[in-house]
Inverse folding.
């Protein structure tokens, strides 16, 4: 860095001293100076380091080649299997196609079931499963509870209305009795005043008013009798309304007790099945039975699928295929020739890419050996080091 600093300083001084240098040339000189300053000096690698790096390259290429060759052989085996399948006699191929069609149909049905959204939770399903035998009767009972509750509510509303009507009649009777009392008092006062008036006139003026006095007394007595009869009738009506009121209250209390008991029974069933109504339980029960039926169908489908898969494997095994089980996942290709062409194309593409990777790693491996041989020729004393280094990687050089 000391040399670079001095060179940098001298170069700048020379640039300043050069009066005939153009502005473009000056910029070019500064640019070259910056490149020189930022350029990193590569460390010098020793021969042993180069040997180790070459060994690493060879070993990595060797490992890659082993994996690639195995994969290449596998892909080639799959392509060979396709050729064998295409050479199967038509009659046998039809049998294979028929079994493959059943496998595809059953697989689609299973997939459809697996994708179905479950509308009841695990907890709800466990509850319904636990009380499965009770639920039909429980649904009927809850329906009866709801119907009876509606009837009891109607009865309570009717009785509350009747009680309100009785209250109105009672208040009306009390008001009429109060008015009758006022009328009776008024009539008594008027009769008394009239009697006093007639008695006074008869005494002071010796007028013959006995008949008028008697008539007044008669009218007063008649009015009193009428008022009394009316009052008695109101009293009897009041007593009857009281009895009606007590009967209505008694019946209402009984209905309320029935309503409470009925509601408690209904709520107990709701808590037992973790629902809010009979309608919700009905919905859950329908979903549970549907889901249970689907699970039954799923188990049957799975059993049928396994049977046909075993049959397909047996049919294909007769033709000495490398892998018969892979056709269980791609059975559609045994039915549709386009699918088979697609698989073949995909395998050929894979094999081509594997071949390219193998060639690349073969070249890397050869390059590694070439570098080592070059170093050994230039430095014969390194031969033992090379042999030991290669032996550590289970490799050798001739």
């Amino acid at each position: 860095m000391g040399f670079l600093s001095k060179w940098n300083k001298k170069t700048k001084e020379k640039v300043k001293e050069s009066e005939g240098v153009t502005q473009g040339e000056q910029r070019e000189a500064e640019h070259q100076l910056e490149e020189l300053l930022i350029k990193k000096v590569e460390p010098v690698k020793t021969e042993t380091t180069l040997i180790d790096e070459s060994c690493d390259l060879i070993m990595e290429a060797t490992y890659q080649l082993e994996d690639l060759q195995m994969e290449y052989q596998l892909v080639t085996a799959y392509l060979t299997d396709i050729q064998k399948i295409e050479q199967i006699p038509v009659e046998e191929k039809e049998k294979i196609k028929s079994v493959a069609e059943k496998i595809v149909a059953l697989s689609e049905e299973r997939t459809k079931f697996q994708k179905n959204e479950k509308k009841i939770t695990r907890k709800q399903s466990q509850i319904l499963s636990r009380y499965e035998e009770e639920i039909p009767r429980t649904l009927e009972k809850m329906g009866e509870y709801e119907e009876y509750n509606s009837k009891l509510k109607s009865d309570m509303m009717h009785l509350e209305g009747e009680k309100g009507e009785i209250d109105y009649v009672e208040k009306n009777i009390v008001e009429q009795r109060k008015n009758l009392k006022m009328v009776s008092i008024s009539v008594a006062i008027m009769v008394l005043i009239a009697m006093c008036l007639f008695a006074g006139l008869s005494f002071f003026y010796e007028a013959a008013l006995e008949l008028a006095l008697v008539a007044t007394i008669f009218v007063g007595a008649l009015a009193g009798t009428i008022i009394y009869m009316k009052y008695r009738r109101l009293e009897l009506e009041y007593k009857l309304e009281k009895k009606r009121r007590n009967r209505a209250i008694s019946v209402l209390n009984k209905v309320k007790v029935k309503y409470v008991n009925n509601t408690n029974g209904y709520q107990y069933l709701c808590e037992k099945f973790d629902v809010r109504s009979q309608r919700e339980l009905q919905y859950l029960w329908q979903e549970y039975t549907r889901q249970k039926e689907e699970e039954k169908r799923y188990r049957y489908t799975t059993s049928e699928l396994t049977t046909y898969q075993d049959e397909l494997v047996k049919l294909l095994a007769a033709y000495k295929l490398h892998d018969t089980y892979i056709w269980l996942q791609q059975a559609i290709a045994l039915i549709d020739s386009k699918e088979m062409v697609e698989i073949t194309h995909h395998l050929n593409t894979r094999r081509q890419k594997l071949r390219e990777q193998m060639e690349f790693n073969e070249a890397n491996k050869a390059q590694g050996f070439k570098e080592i041989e070059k170093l050994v020729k230039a430095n014969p004393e390194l031969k033992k080091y090379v042999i030991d280094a290669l032996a550590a990687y289970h490799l050798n050089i001739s």
About this structure: The first helix runs from residue 2 to 17.
